[in-house]
Specification:
211 residues; mainly alpha; 9 helices
């Protein structure tokens, strides 16, 4: 096996480990998931996994970083100076909603991270979700209607929208059980419209604050 083939195998193995870890962390949380279980899903030994990731903390950090990168890409793709602030925020919020629905494991890991405070001892350079939240507030910084708002006011509004999106996306299974698939489909169709209304209220609140 030449160097290029070896590198491909290593990258493929690393990707499989990240996918297995993503599933385990979503279902069991950081403390409930084990290196042995994650390695077993890929058909590797614990020692082979540790060749790619020295500690479970490193594996969890890599999973969180991938989630944050996906979320950041949604935010950045919505920013377009040619569009109105309202349109940009609507695009951003809808993008986050569909990303959450399309990546249920992301949602479960993110909910655990925020609600259960996983990896409390993680160093600041691994606070990837904070990076996403900070950038979301920075998007609001560019909206002239919200100039009079403090960081805490902008963060509170941004976090309310993030929470509404993630909580709904994490509720798919019980909502289908409660109301059936047809009614859930109607709810899922209506939810982005309700999120748009929140964007309008956010901007209207900013205008009132300036007055």
């Amino acid at each position: 096996m030449d160097l290029e083939q070896k590198q491909y195998v290593q990258e493929d193995t690393r990707e499989k480990l990240l996918l297995a870890a993503h599933s385990q962390f979503a279902g069991r949380g950081f403390y409930g998931a084990s290196i042995a279980q994650i390695a077993g899903e890929v058909g590797l030994t614990k020692q082979a996994l540790l060749y790619h990731f020295k500690r479970k903390e490193d594996l969890y950090s890599a999973v969180l970083k991938r989630i944050a990168v996906r979320l950041l890409s949604v935010l950045r793709s919505a920013v377009d100076a040619n569009n109105s602030p309202e349109h940009q925020l609507e695009t951003m919020v809808e993008g986050m909603y569909f990303a959450a629905c399309d990546n249920p494991l992301d949602t479960k890991v993110l909910m655990r991270e925020l609600l259960e405070d996983q990896r409390r001892d993680a160093p600041e350079n691994e606070w990837f979700i904070k990076t996403f939240l900070d950038e979301m507030v920075s998007v609001l910084d560019s909206v002239s209607e919200l100039e009079g708002m403090s960081f805490s006011e902008k963060f509170s509004r941004a976090y309310m929208i993030v929470s509404a999106i993630q909580f709904f996306a994490a509720s798919t299974s019980p909502l289908i059980r409660f109301y059936g698939e047809e009614e859930y489909a109607r709810i899922a169709h209506a939810y982005p419209l309700a999120l748009r209304e929140q964007v309008h209220k956010l901007l209207a609140g900013g205008k009132e604050g300036l007055g």
